Recover the amino acids of this structure.
């Protein structure tokens, strides 16, 4: 035979997990991406934002910029490229970047 109990609906809701503090790596990423967002927000036509990595690797710069560009409300208008270890973001296509005209065969 089974034991029968009556409980309220609120007892069945799982408790809300505690909010964790961000790790130092997450804090650094948030700070870096906020700086990139501010720079991209200042972009106007004819201007290009240049991001030169100082204490970070190019791959870190690339992933952070990709995240920021994808989140931006102007993401369909933004173009970015990495040439020679330096990242460029602009509202027009970046000269010398990939995705240019196809060669005629």
């Amino acid at each position: 035979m089974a034991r029968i109990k009556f409980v309220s609906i609120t007892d069945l809701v799982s408790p809300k997990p505690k909010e964790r503090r961000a790790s130092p790596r997450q804090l650094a990423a948030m700070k870096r991406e906020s700086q990139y967002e501010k720079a991209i927000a200042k972009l106007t036509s004819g201007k290009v934002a240049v991001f030169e990595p100082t204490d970070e690797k190019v791959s870190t710069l690339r992933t952070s910029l990709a995240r920021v560009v994808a989140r931006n409300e102007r993401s369909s208008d933004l173009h970015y490229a990495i040439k020679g270890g330096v990242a460029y973001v602009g509202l027009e296509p970046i000269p010398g970047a990939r995705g240019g005209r196809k060669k005629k065969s």
